[in-house]
Amino acid sequence: MDAIINSVVSNLVTEAQRTIEQKDANESFKQILPSLISKGIDRVDLSMFTPEMRVGILNSMGEEYLRKGNLEEAEKAFVLTSNEAKLVEVGDDYNRLCDYSKAIELYKLSGNNGRLLTMGKKCMKDGRLKDAIIAFDAANDRESLLSIGCACMDKGRFDLAYSVFNALEDNFRLCKLGDACIKEQDYDTALHVFKKIDDKTKLNILGEICVKNYKLNLALEAFGLAENFSILKFLKENLAS
C-alpha cells in the first residue's frame, strides 16, 4: 500500500513540475514574442527548438500577425505549419479587403473547395473572369469551367477561353474557338489553338489567310506546323525578306 501511495505522490509531483515548467516556458515565450514579431518570419532562427515547439511558435506568431493585419507574414507562418484553418482565415481577410486574387491563392493553399467555389461564382458575377477561372480550376469544377470558357468566347476573350478549353482538354470547343478567332482576326490565338489540337487542315487555312493579310511570319509558322513544306519553301524563296 505504501508503495502505491508513494507512486501516486511521485506522479503528482512530476505532473506539478511539468505544469510549472510549462507555465514558465509560456511566460518566457510571451516575453520574446514581440522581438520575434518585429524580426519577421524570414529572419527568425528557430532551429534550436524541437519540431513541436517550432510549430507552436510559428502558429503564435501567425496569430499575432493576423491580429495586427499583417496578412503577408501571417500567411508565411501558417504555410510553414500547414495550418489550413488559419490559412482560410487569412484568405477571408483578403476577401474582405477585396483582394480576390490573394484570397483565392490562400483558399488554394488551404484546399478549401467550398471557399474556392464561392469566390469563383463571385468573380464570375463581377466580370473578373481570370480570377474565376483560377478558382474553378483549383476546385476542379469542370462544369463551371466549361460555362466560363463559353462565356469568355462569347465576350471575345479568346485568350481566356483558350486557357479553359485547354485545361479541360476539350478539342471540340478548341476547334470552335479557333474558327471564332479567325473570324475576328485573332490569328495569334488561332495559331495556338490549331497547334494544340494538331489540326493541319486548319493550320493550312490559317496560313493562307495570314498570307492574304500580309502576316508572313505567322503564315510561315502555320505552314511549318502543317508540314506543308512545298508552300513553306515557296514563301521563303519568294516573299521572306
What does the model show?
The protein is an all-alpha fold and 241 residues long. The chain contains 14 helices and no strands. It is elongated. About 7% of the residues have low confidence.
Any descriptors?
241 residues; mainly alpha; 14 helices
Question: Summary?
Answer:
The protein is mostly helical. It is 80% helix and 0% strand. The protein has helices spanning 2-39, 51-68, 71-80, 84-96, 100-110, 113-125, 129-138, 142-154, 158-168, 171-183, 187-196, 200-212, 216-225, 229-238.
Strand/helix succession:
HHHHHHHHHHHHHH
Enumerate the spans where pLDDT stays under 50 for 5 or more consecutive residues. 8-25
How many helical stretches?
14
The total beta strand count reads 0
* Helix content bin: over 70%
Q: What fraction of the residues are assigned to beta strands by DSSP?
A: under 5%
Which value, in Å, is the CA radius of gyration?
30 Å
Sum up the overall morphology in one term.
Answer: elongated
**Ends apart, CA distance between termini:** 105 Å
Q: Quick one: biggest sheet? A: none
What's the pLDDT, averaged over the residues? 86
Structural class, by secondary structure, is mainly alpha
